[in-house]
Amino acid sequence: MQTLILVKHALPEIDPAVPAREWHLSVEGCVRSRILGEELDRYDLDLVISSIEPKAIETAEIAAGLLKIPMKVVEGLHEHERVSVGFLEKERFEQSIRRFYEQPADLVFGEETADGAYVRFSKAVSGLTTLHPRENIAIVTHGTVLSLFLSRNSVMEPFALWKELGLPSCVVMSRPGFDVVEINPDIGDGAFPGSA
User: Fold this and answer.
1) Cα–Cα distance between 188 and 159 in angstroms, integer?
2) What is the DSSP string of 126-194?
3) In a domain, 189, yes or no
4) Residue 115 lies in a domain
5) How many structural domains are present in the chain?
């Protein structure tokens, strides 16, 4: 039995003037990515894979570098597509995410439905597990698609999981059945005094 670890990227530098898909890691995010690498060391990983977004790539590079294992970037693992939305205050953003999960077939937020995001993301994950049948892999991705994938492969409620997952966080799953073995909801919290 092999391991698949889905990782939510580390803390980015938030810039309301820049689309979230272009954000890079903050200084704290870099520190937390090193802590993530230390946490992942106990799973005997062979490969770290990242979505195409900078904050995920940087998280994966730091963790893979610490583990001294290969890292690669793969299409299809990016966040729910919502380029047209722009920056939203926390309450409004959370309301939009809740609607996204509650109305999966409807285009309620951004340019991609929940059903569409799930098909795209699950196809990428399935392709990777087929390509790497004997390797233990970690995939660094994003909270909305990660929670969506888990909710459809387990009994988890997607919005509650989305709210629980910190930056970074990880969910350890066994393969081939995608059974959840462990959830680490907030890796590196407290690495900086007063960090949230």
Assistant:
1) 22
2) HHHHHHSTTS-EEEEE-HHHHHHHHHHSSS--HHHHHHH--SSEEEEEEETTTEEEEEE--TTTTSSTT
3) no
4) yes
5) 1
Give the contacts of 138 (CB within 8 A, at least 6 positions apart): 4, 5, 6, 7, 40, 43, 45, 47, 48, 49, 60, 63, 170
Is residue 126 domain-resident? Answer: yes
Say which CATH number the domain at 53 has: 3.40.50.1240
**Of 37, 39, 43, 40, which Cα lies nearest the Cα of 3?**
43
pLDDT in tens, 67-97: 999 999 999 999 999 999 989 999 999 999 9
| Enclosing domain of residue 138 | 2-184
Quote the CA–CA distance of 157 and 151 in Å, as a whole number: 6
Residue 134: how many CB atoms within 10 A of its CB?
6
Q: Is residue 190 part of a domain?
A: no
Taking only the tens place, the pLDDT of each residue in 163-190 is 999 999 999 999 989 999 999 999 987 6
Provide CB contacts within 8 A for 168, sequence distance 6+: 7, 8, 9, 10, 11, 32, 33, 36, 59, 140, 187, 188
